[in-house]
Amino acid sequence: MNKLPSDDRIIRELCFRLLPAQIMLAAVNAVNGLVSGIFATNFVGQDAMSAVGLYSPLSLVIGAVSALLLGGSQILSAEYKGSNSTDRFRDIFMLDMELSVLISAVLTLALFLGGALRLGRLFTADVPVQSSLNIYLMGMALSVLPQVLGQQLSGYLSLENRAHLTLAASIAYVVINLLLNWVFIVCMHMQVLGLALSSSLGLWAYCLIQAVWFLRPDADVRFSLQGIKPGDVAELFRIGIPGALSYAYLSFRGLAVNAMLTRWVGSDGLSAFTACNSLMNIFWTIPTGMLAVSRMLMSVSIGEEDRHSLQDVMRNVFRRYIPLMCGVCVLIIVCARPFTRLFYQDVSAPVFSMTEWGFRFLPFCMPTGIVVMHFICYGQASGKNLFVHILVFLDSVVTVTAFTALLIPFIGMNSVYIANVMNGIVSCLFILGHAVLMNRRLPVNMAELMVIPPSFGVPEDALMDLSVRTMEEVTTVAAAVQSFYEGSGVDRRRSMLAGLALEEMAGNVVDHGFSKDSRPHSVDIRAVHKDDSLILRIRDDCRPFDPDERRAMTDPADKASNIGIRMVYAMAESVRYQNLLGLNVLTIRI
């Protein structure tokens, strides 16, 4: 049997095709922080910058809610997509929308009342900063619903291969936020309230631009009212809680670090750290976007019980994402002084030096951060609850808080930066230690590092993964699949039908799909023998093509029209097509 080995080209290209929109999505809050920071320091004053920094932990609480809903719903939805459960996919979409609105309403009220009742005194004893924070809270209350709902919509647009709408919405947000900041602060002198309203109104535009798609009749999922099923809520929360806890822990960590900075370094330290984070958050959108893409691909792979694709996603992290991020880190370190000048002009001021050192230390967190984020995501999707909870707690709060508390009395501001670098190292060592403990040896391959259970997916001897790029390879693979099934004990007739079905459908992709554009293409084929069923999955990255629609268009009187497609439907027990993340996925069961 002449096997043509599978490769990870489709996974690799899909990762980078989806990445720009996901980075832009992640950039929404980061851009808000950066723009607010620049306008606060240059046009309002340092009290406003301190207020923005004090609001950051509260922003993380909103992020926790969004992460809980997005993580749980996206993983569940992608798994249902992978298993072709369309109705359940739509159920989770509407559940996510309803929960987003309900929880956002509560948080909006809480923020507005916090500002109206002048609760800023709970965060700082500095009276001018208190006043700025109270006004900022009331203005930012308007941003909660569009922020949470907009992030949920972006996840579903990616699953529907409409990520360009998220990209357009993100660009609109950036432009509107900048323009309104200039109008409200520079022209109308609205000070801190102008900072908050600019962000809030920009987020409403971001949300509404994305929402329009889900009102269209051709959308796979649309807005509708339905009852909330407690079982679905529990499952969504179970999956999403680790991601939410990460934000909650970060919020606690932010409060703790702010308190230590206030005590040991003073307002200069708080302002420097806020300035560093506001710009570093822009660069952190790259790992966050990488994670968003990987979350979808991992979840789909788990839904399909595709062990190989699951490992390919994680291999892509080490082979491509981390080297790319290392290049970005070098750029940040080299540009430390110009970046500092975005916020502060006096090079002799203590706050300038503190900020510059932040840009030299903090980039070292990013490569290890990518690894930790992906293993948390994989643990969420695969149900490794204890592992995820320990890693999230360790990464989000324990290491940074502990190292900062230990070092800040001796080295001051730089203790916070060093603690963040140590955090990534300790978390990666925990991941490795977990793999050693579970395998009882150092991991020698990706499956062992990820601790993928042997029971996950189909046994290796019951499946075959191949890729084809030419019509000649299609013929060879069809014969190989027929021989594989016969060697697995399947009768010759069904084995031959499987080979014929594969040759027809894969050949159709190569013959017609490859010629639609000038990009290189391949067809990934998976042949599975499971529970006496022969399952063929044919996956390609060509233009969307549903063979069932082509079959339905056939004139019954024309016996020769689309005869190959009609033959496959006649011989198969079921044929199911879906366009998933921009890939054509055809599943044939014989």
Report on this model:
The protein has 2 domains: 9-447, no CATH class; 460-589, Heat Shock Protein 90 (2-Layer Sandwich), CATH 3.30.565. The chain has helices spanning 9-44, 46-82, 86-116, 127-140, 144-159, 163-187, 191-211, 230-264, 267-303, 307-334, 336-341, 350-361, 365-382, 385-411, 414-439, 446-450, 471-487, 492-513, 547-552, 563-571; strands spanning 463-468, 523-530, 533-540, 574-580, 583-589. The longest helix has 37 residues, at 46-82. The protein has 590 residues and is α+β, with helices and mostly antiparallel strands. It is elongated, with a radius of gyration of 26 Å. It is built from 20 helices and 5 strands. A hairpin with a 2-residue loop joins strand 2 (523-530) and strand 3 (533-540). The two termini are 22 Å apart. Strands 1-2-3-5-4 form a 5-stranded antiparallel β-sheet, with helices on one face.
* Number of alpha- plus pi-helical segments: 20
Sequence stretches where pLDDT stays below 50 over 5 or more residues: none
Biggest sheet strand order reads: 1-2-3-5-4
Separation of the first and last Cα atoms = 22 Å
Q: Rg, please?
A: 26 Å
